[in-house]
Write a structure and sequence with these properties.
- By secondary structure, this protein is α/β, with parallel strands linked by helices.
- The protein folds into 2 domains: about 20-140 and about 295-315, 3-Layer(aba) Sandwich (Rossmann fold), CATH 3.40.50.1370; about 145-295, Rossmann fold.
- The chain has helices at about 20-35, 65-75, 95-105, 120-125, 145-160, 175-190, 220, 245-255, 255-260, 285, 295-315; strands at about 55-60, 80-85, 110-115, 135-140, 165-170, 195, 215, 225-230, 270.
- The strands form 2 sheets. The chain has a 5-stranded parallel sheet with strand order 7-6-5-8-9.
- The longest helix has 25 residues, at about 295-315.
- The radius of gyration is 19 Å and the shape is globular.
- Bound molecules: N-carbamoyl-L-aspartate.
- N-carbamoyl-L-aspartate binds near residues 64, 138, 178, 232 and 273.
Length: about 325
Amino acid sequence: MSGQLRPDGSLRHLLTLEDLPRALIERLLERAQSLVRPLGERPPVSRALAGCTVANLFTEPSTRTRVSFELAAKRLGADVVNLEVQLSSRVKGESMLDTVYTLQSLHVDALVIRDAEMGVPGTVAANVAAHVSVLSAGEAHVAHPTQGLLDALTVRQHKPNLEAIAIAIVGDIRHSRVARSALHVFRALGVRDVRIVAPPVLMPEPQEFAGCSRHTSLESGLKDADVVMMLRIQKERMAQAELPDADRYYASYGLTPERLALARPDAIVMHPQPMNRGIEIASAVADGPQSVIRDQVRNGVAVRMAVLSEVLAWRSAA
Ligand code: NCD
């Protein structure tokens, strides 16, 4: 995707991690890492973005992404507005752009957008004024770039030698923006062994996820994996007839302690949440010693602070 970078190579919009330069990804991750603190300690705060305004415009439900974008902006001194967008009156096309123009007139500098329809963040980015940045907080099944960055940060904290590890992404790959953004960032950072594990109906089209090995057996996909990334079944992106039966799914694809034992003994377990305990993951695994699921949430604020600082840096310097 072109148009995310300014002529000087800095980041203006963040819509996808696909084709983002490795050096830029590394810079964002290093900055995010410098902002991570152990729980119990105060997170870093600054006034670097004082006078800037960030608007959250979510037309799909969100807990972690929305709260962490808000906290990230506030911890940098920015003002935040959260728009209550009615899920029933889906905002798109003209009306979405009118909302955006209104926010622009109110001196909003960054728009954080989550939408179930493909292309919305890109359309907004193509229509905003030159000083406004658009950050995708999840676009349909296509991209969730800040999630990809926080996933990469979490992996790196535990497995610094990314070129040598095997990552198994398990579950509803077909409908997952999390899996797509994860693949983009893992590839950029040199991960060689990425496996996708899913029942045939939840596998992506053959032309997607090029270079990944495909496993319909969880056991074969988990073998000696260093990282196991579990995904939620995206019910909202499926017709009723496509929905797998929860018990049968758990029997074949649920991550239980016994199955996790097939991965490496020091493997980490990830999940972007929300989790369906007892469907894709057993509580004993989600809350167990190999789980880094709560670290992912903590890392999410640091990543979003890094991204907001990057896109609004030119403002704070002015
Ligand atoms: C994910 C999303 O919205 O794509 N959640 C998140 O942002 N952490 C994953 C999901 O909904 O399953």
